[in-house]
Amino acid sequence: RRSPLTGKDGYDLVVVSNRLPVDFTVDHEGRVDWKRSPGGLVTALEPVMQKSDGAWVGWSGAPDLEVEPFDADDMRLVPVTLSATEIERYYEGFSNDTLWPLYHDVIAPPAFHRQWWDAYRRVNQRFADAAAAQAEQGATVWVHDYQLQLVPRMLREQRPDLRIGFFNHIPFPPLELFQQLPWRRQVIDGLLGADLIGFQRAGDASNFIRAVRRLTGYTTRGPIVTTPATEDSPARHVRAAAFPISIDSHTFDELARTPEVQARSREIRADLGDPEVMMLGVDRLDYTKGIRHRIKAYGEILQDGRIDVEHVTLVQVASPSRENVGAYQELREQVEALVGRINGEYAEIGHAAIHYLHHSYPPEEMAALYLAADVMLVTSLRDGMNLVAKEYIAARSDDQGVLVLSEFTGAADELASGALLVNPHDIDGMKDIIVAAAHMDPREQRKRMRRLRRRVLADDVSKWSESFLGVLQAMPSRDTPRRQE
Ligand code: G6P
Predict the structure, then answer these.
(1) Which of 30, 44, 67, 284 pairs with 254 at a CA distance of 20 to 30 A?
(2) Ligand 1 binding pocket includes 170 (Cβ within 6 Å)
(3) Ligand 1 touching residue 104 (CB < 6 A)
(4) pLDDT tens-digit map of 65-79
(5) Whose CA is nearest to atom 16 of ligand 1?
(6) What is the mean pLDDT of the chain?
(7) Which of 403, 297, 391 is nearest to 353 (CA)?
(8) What digits encode the pLDDT tens for the residues 449-477?
(9) C-alpha closest to that of 279 among 268, 290, 267, 263
(10) Are 331 and 288 contacting, i.e. CB atoms less than 8 angstroms apart?
């Protein structure tokens, strides 16, 4: 594990996330190959990783796949192996059927199973061990998201010399919901192993601080928690604060300006029969996204005769997600039944009411869809940030298009001045706003879109990672010697 850049035997920056930023394929002879997956996090971290000699620890995405660490794009990639049972209990179970619904305001009921918790602990320990083995003395380790909340403390126990940051990409729930978790205290203690804990919204950080105060009794002062000294470690200060994430806005803006994407966007509109108004929804097929609420409102607008299918159409991209989890299977059934009913009722030959696409698409196609859409519908019931809203804005260098945005997204904190905010539970209110969006005059659209673009182009994802790492690295270092193994 000698770093090729510095010759040292560890890395200065280690990122830990559930998934590695590459997709693996195994051919019929068992040969493993990989290609980059274009996620937001890797775009954000690549420049810092390259500058500072970095390693990335994460799961390959497949069961029982054992791959040795390898170098790609000036980063060390360190795969963590998960068995099929661990995927079932740690990933599908505890992460996505316990924590995910609990942290998204129990829109679906969270399931609490002790076997899932045991697997979560064991797998978190494996990630922590892998990160500890990669990190140079005094290195910075940045742990990501709800799948790995125990890693900060597990790391600190082995490596008190490290600076540890944690970022939660999803909401942190109010105490009264978080409290339901049978292992709430262990999760809080796991997170408090970090020096800096980042959240999407100020409200998430204050929910966390309140949970710490009520469940541990530790002293808190504003955003700072003081954990008491123990026999072998001094008292520590942990900071919790909001760092709203963004996208690589300039690259997306440039992509949407290319002649190919522009031509494709005209083609999409033509293929849809040149509607006067094209509405668009783009989501992972997840019950947090409010897809059913959105489609219900749209169906009622058609029923009320406020719009008609000859002039208006809705394109709904719902990318497949977590298909082994029951709540996701049920949602798919419900959404597909609803789409079928509305199309059956209102579509005409050559004029679908809803074009439903259960696929995921590359960024070029997404940019073309955004450019083609007059109205973008983001109606999440709960959402850490929602990057689709930001991508839509970054694509619209023509200053046209209307963003309908749920109050329950992190993005609403930043985009309230240009978007039309909705409460997706209020179907009548949402219907009025969707109709208003469909009729908004181009001058008003321009005024609003300019405001939105100023914001999204200024706060891009590299600013996000620099500001998180800046705060983390400015915290007093501990000079604690690396513990001997
Ligand atoms: C959310 C989470 C991520 C997760 C992504 C896709 O954005 O915050 O941690 O990677 O959803 O979900 P998946 O379960 O496919 O990784």
Answers:
(1) 284
(2) yes
(3) no
(4) 999 999 988 899 999
(5) 19
(6) 95
(7) 297
(8) 999 999 999 999 999 999 999 999 998 87
(9) 268
(10) no
